[in-house]
Prior knowledge:
Order of helices and strands of chain B: HHHHHHH
CATH superfamily of the largest domain in chain B: Cytochrome C biogenesis protein
Largest sheet of chain B: none
Strand content of chain C: 5-15%
Oligomer: heterotrimer
Helix content of chain C: 55-70%
Order of helices and strands of chain C: HHHHHHHHHHHHHHHHHHEEEEEEEEEEH
Strand content of chain B: under 5%
Largest interface: B-C, 85 and 100 residues
Shape of chain C: globular
Distance between the termini of chain C: 61 Å
Number of strands of chain B: 0
CATH architecture of the largest domain in chain B: Orthogonal Bundle
Radius of gyration of chain B: 31 Å
Number of helices of chain C: 19
Number of domains of chain C: 4
Structural class of chain B: mainly alpha
Distance between the termini of chain B: 40 Å
CATH class of the largest domain in chain B: Mainly Alpha
Amino acid sequence: MSVTDEATGPARDGGGGDEALPARRGHTARNAAIVVGIVLVALIALLATRGTSEPVSSKIVGQAAPDVSGQTLDGSTFSLAQHRGEWVLVNFFATWCTPCRVEHPELVKFSQQHADDPVQVVSVAFDDEPAAIEEFFAQQGGSWPVIPSDTGRIALDYGITGVPETYVVAPSGLVIGRLEGVTAEALDQVIDAAGGMAAAQGS
Amino acid sequence: MPEPAPERSALSAGSPVRRWLPWAALAVVVVTCLSIAAFGSTGTPTPQDRVAAIAKTIKCPTCSGESVAESNAPASQEIRADIAERVQNGQGDGDIRAYYAGRYGDAILLTPSASGVNALIWILPVVAFAVAVAGLVVVFRRWSGEAPAHASAADRALVEAALRREHEQAVEADDAHGEGSSR
Amino acid sequence: MNVALGRAGVTLGLAAAVLGAVTVVYGLVRKKPELVRLSRAYSVLVLLGGVVAFAAMEHALITRDFTVRYVYDNGSTKTPALYNFATLWGALEGSIILWGTILGGYLVAVVVKFRKRLDDPLVGWALATMLVVAGFFFFLLAGPANPFESVSPAPGYDGPGPNPLLQNHPLMAFHPPMLYLGYVGFTVPFAFAIAALVTGRVGEGWLLATRRWTLIAWGFLTVGIVLGSWWSYEVLGWGGYWAWDPVENASFMPWLTGTAYIHSVMVQERRGMLRVWNLSLLCATFALTILGTFITRSGVLESVHAFTESSIGPALLVFFSLIVLTTVGLIGWRGDRLRSPGRIDSPISREGAFLANNVLFGAFAFVVLMGTIFPLVIEAINDDRISVGTPYFNRMTIPLSLTLLFLMAVAPVLPWRKASGELLRHRLLWPAWIGAAAMVVGVALGARGVGAVLAFGFGGFAAGSAGRQIVLATRRQGWRGLVGRANGGMVVHIGVVVIAVAVAASGSFVRQAELTLEPGQSASFAGHTLTYEGQQVRDEGAKVVNQALIRIDGTGPWGPSLNKFANGSQTIGTPSVRSTLTDDVALSLIQVPDGDRTSITVRVTIQPLVIWLWIGGAVMALGTLLAVFPGRRRNPIDPVSAPLPGARAGRGPSGREGVAPRPGRADVDDERDAEEVPV
């Protein structure tokens, strides 16, 4: 900003001559002010057009989905590999996160709408307590597998930057979409855009 | 010199050898220290040191503006553990960083790369600094080329008059400042 | 009731500021001194409005009046008294109340100080500028950031309390007010700079008038920054104190330009040069405080310290643009006519050193600014996301800092105008040996790495020269050799050296590890033995504290903890630090026993000399106080440029105005001349 552009200023300010040499006085300050002014206006324009920071975009979209496996809350095991050929929604959430509470009914709605389709939802809890998760699902509904906490490894593999985040894994095993906070409608759109339920085997 | 400062006479005493001897000794001490500092061994870095060093260059993905070395967020703990594992498996620092950049994008790295537009962040400050220094050099050159103006007796009279005026103003101003006054 | 009172205060402040600014400017333009003098009444009313709003909010907080929006959002019956009081500045809207109130205080202080010159156009324009700034902040309180909205809570409602991080350490009660006293304090010299530009009186008058104000603001900002890093060290628990976070940078940038100013202003006082440059520095400093507030409050950049995003971002940006366009416009329009004649005889002189200082501080501020906003620039250019963090800042600023330390060693002994090699050789010998001794000690104690050892050496060198100046001054003037700007400044320098050495040592020789310990188990790390004794769980109302008791080398026990706050969400760790004069052992708890697992995991960070950062900060504050303390009063008829006929050479400080030097005297420039000596 002003700092560098003016950094040469002290020298010039002093060097501009004196009363006896009006010609040498020049327009240093004016020219410097114009340059600084332009830079600053650009900076202001930049700041004005920036919204609030969005989270870091994911590199994982378009790549093979990292494995999601582990013991679920009800004691069985879940592995993403078993669901190759189906659409899988990998949902990262936490019970302490308000947007997660907001999106949860949408996930419930989505899973009910597609109860007969080859779609699997799996939730991965982030920094959470099993008891709180059970209570959360009991209150809010939803009957899909939930992998409780101490599975930070999965979050790492997916490169999640916060909760909630939902990854759409295609029947081919590629991640085709990433949503921060979902609606049933948005999920349908993502899946339809990539071939819809027909893309899954067995339908 | 109408009234040489005592210091000056002390300065002039002694031969060049005596004058420079303390500085030569000083140079020897400094050079010795710096070479020990530069080449002395600190011991090979332990894996833990390496983990810490790498962690400092990776941004915590779930927090705002902290490195994984700083943050105690679960994701950071996980990444620290993961880095430790990779260090143990013999991966190089660069490989580990590249792995995270592949997962999370370049924004996970706290050191911007020096390629493309990103290089500006390294170049601009250096250029600005160089321009400022060059400007100073040019100005000093110009100044040293100018003959210094000499004050004539008339000038001094003017200055004296101005000083008296200033004095009166200053006294008034002091009153106004409320710093105590001579009246 | 609190809502009504608070709104009344805000409205009063806003009305007084706006009316005051309009009246004073009208009076100045129409040359009606009786109108200009009304600034006194308006300023008092602004302060009154601020105090009423402040008191209303504190009353609402203390009585837990949840019908006030701010208390509803940030208050809680469970918050302990001190943190409850400090909640006023714990979130955005409240911090603006503090800002407005402090600004009102500065306004009244200026009015009192200049009470006999209120109709002087210079003072008038300055007060008008301050009233405009005050008007803006009260406008924020009245509209975009209104903390006094009324809400009707459900019966039995209890608020969430302030952000858990902010109720974890008592320093939170002191750090923000100090910082704001600094930020807001820079409004005063800025206002006088604007007044000088408007009236065209850029001579020394306004500058002498505001010199002390600038120093005070700078001192508060320094203390605020040091307390802030102390707070992060004690609370965030990662063993560090400075993370080059956007919010930290936002407070650091005005500090850098302010520091450049308090040095270069001396060239103007002595030689009458750099007038326009100094004005620009003051304007930049103030603009940077507003930019920093924007960065902190608008959510454009991520930060640990950022308040939640809010609607005041656009307002702050508009205000920032206004300041920038006004000052740049004024400087462009007036600057060339206001520039002063004069030249600097030699780069090896006090003035030359100040110029170098300005270039270095300017570059430093530029680096910090670049690192802070560059991600935004890149995103705008190619929609790419990058992060700029500690590694970048360290690599760029360490060379600058080392150069500054070296300059700090040489500059204080330089005479004005010109120095000869012989003189330097004489004056610098002992300081240089002190620096060399510091290097030897460092290396002997096992320090390796050129950067750190150079920092010790230059640090010792700089401390040596500062000490030399202080010793010479006290020898001549007794206790008065410690007060006044030049001498107090040397004390500040010593504080800076202490901090620089502490930063170099703690940054270069930090050791960190994560240890997992069973109850009763001990582990050794970097020469310290840690013993885990047991766990303690306490319910403190506002939080549940899960503490591990750990002995460090047999002392203690120390109790790092994980706290779960009543308002849910995640756990927040509170580290525990054992500080000694030589090193700090910081423990932060990562895992507590859970289920079958009885072990804890604790992160231990061992850093040498950390405590000296805070000691250095205290020394800087002390030095600023000494510098502010009226030193010797210069007799106004002292020869300040050419000697009066009959006056003896070398008695008085020379060359305040831009009068040409007398050849031949330059390199013997009596050392007493370097300080402000009584005549």
